[in-house]
Design a protein that fits this description.
two-stranded antiparallel sheet; Xan_ur_permease; mainly alpha; 2 strands; Purine permease; transmembrane helix; UacT-like; 451 residues
């Protein structure tokens, strides 16, 4: 069991809650904003449409995060779970958008969400496909898949060109990493719990002093912006709905793995009904954000690392994160302010958070029953997951639907682990001579008399 500073239903003091919620927001914000930016750039959308997509994504992510944490009837897992736009949908969104534009993306997202909503009804059965060995593999793979993201941030970001890996970028990231480690190890109370946000704040101040922060986006951002549902319109191309449906299936596998990791981090037993509430929220939430004008949302794995690092598992903290995200969507100037945080600052904190997920996965793997069968499941599934993570071009010449399903290292590892767990036979344990020696003497006498 993990030692938690705050349990799932605890309510920390307001100032503490605000700081803790802010660090969850900082961990998730880059991912939420990145998806609309990537899709908008590829489709060559006007700047105002990209801004509208970002605002809708922030607002939608915030609202669904609140529902996921607090729960509304049968919807919501009621755990500290941050929701945001997912890269699992980027490939499908771009292919649909190139042919049918943004209305096709949003219509396909709305219609495809039915796949996840229906899938939530079968989560008790799906849960049986995730025994401890499979869950441990997925948790480990989540961390392994996220670490390269933190490395890119630390180096200055993928789009930094010639400045990628500059010593100044690596130095800032290292400074933030050391600061976070010091606060976690030696800090007391709030200084330990809020180590991520405090470390990033110190790193941000250093960057401001060095003149590395660009405030131009803050000056251009609107102070307030109301959402405009259905502003882009909607169309429902059959090919787009099928593509999004496949993406939702893949996301459901990833989300199940993330929920299992979340259960481990929060000391919560993940039952089928619990998973069903969470996946249902993913599906219903994606349908709602499509109407707001945002790409689909899913559970963010990186925030599990925040919980593992800080020991703060309060769902009320993360519900406040949802409020902050929603406000960032309504007040774009707030989101623009957060976007000014340099990538190396995010990288230093992210490396620590994501590595903690790997550590949690390794701890789970250490508790798996050691046998040739489980060894094969662990080795092959993690190997396949790493293969598509470090060499994504491996799938470039395969059909598009194969890339959709196996494009993520997390989904690949999960699918391979579940498949091997189903097809590899359980081998009965055979008694050895050593076992016979451990039998008490009176029992041996009875065995000999019976013979």
């Amino acid at each position: 069991m993990n030692k938690l500073l705050f349990q799932v239903d605890d309510r920390p003091p307001l100032i503490t809650t605000t700081l803790l919620a802010a660090q969850h927001m900082l961990a998730a914000l880059g991912g939420i904003i990145a998806v609309p930016l990537v899709v908008g750039a590829v489709l060559k959308l006007p700047a105002d449409q990209i801004v509208a997509l970002i605002n809708a994504a922030l607002l939608g992510s915030g609202i669904v995060t609140i529902i996921q944490c607090k729960g509304v009837g049968p919807i919501g897992i009621r755990l500290p779970c941050v929701m945001g736009t997912s890269f699992a949908f980027v490939g499908a969104a771009i292919s649909i958008g190139l042919e049918h534009g943004v209305p096709g993306i949003l219509g396909s997202s709305l219609a495809g969400s039915v796949v996840m909503i229906i899938g939530s009804c079968f989560m008790p059965q799906i849960r049986k496909l995730f025994p401890h060995a499979v869950t441990a593999v997925v948790v480990t793979m989540i961390g392994l898949s996220l670490v390269p993201v933190a490395i890119d941030w630390a180096a200055g970001g993928k789009g930094s060109g010639a400045h990628y890996g500059d010593p100044i970028n690596l130095g800032i990231a290292l400074f933030v990493l050391v600061t976070v480690i010091a606060l976690v190890q030696y800090g007391k109370g709030i200084f330990s719990a809020a180590a991520v946000v405090l470390g990033m704040f110190v790193g941000y101040l250093v960057c401001v002093a060095m003149g590395l922060v660009d405030f131009s986006s803050v000056q251009k951002a609107a102070a307030f912006s109301l959402p405009q549902p259905f502003a882009h319109g909607m169309t429902f191309p059959i090919s787009g709905i099928v593509a999004m449906g496949v993406a939702y299936v893949v996301t459901m596998v990833e989300t199940t793995g993330t929920f299992m990791a979340l259960g481990s981090a929060t000391n919560t037993k993940m039952r089928g009904k619990t998973l069903a509430r969470g996946v249902l929220c993913d599906g219903v939430g994606s349908a709602c954000v499509a109407m707001l004008g945002s790409p689909p949302v899913s559970t963010f794995a990186q925030n599990v690392g925040v919980i593992s690092l800080t020991g703060v598992a309060s769902r009320h903290v993360v519900a406040l994160t949802g409020v902050m995200l929603a406000l960032a969507g309504l007040f774009p100037v707030l989101g623009a302010m957060v976007v000014t945080i340099p990538q190396p600052v995010l990288g230093g904190a992210g490396l620590m958070m994501f590595a903690m997920i790997i550590a949690a996965g390794v701890q789970m793997l250490s508790k798996v029953e050691h046998s040739k069968r489980t060894g094969i499941i662990i080795a092959v599934s993690i190997g396949c997951g790493l293969a598509v993570s470090v060499r994504p071009e491996l799938l470039a010449k395969l059909p598009a639907f194969v890339h959709e399903i196996f494009g993520s290292g997390i989904s690949t590892a999960a699918i391979v682990a579940v498949t091997l767990n189903l097809i590899l036979p359980e081998r009965p344990v055979e008694a050895s001579d050593d076992d016979e020696e451990d039998v008490p003497q009176p029992m041996l006498v009875k065995k000999l008399e019976a013979a």
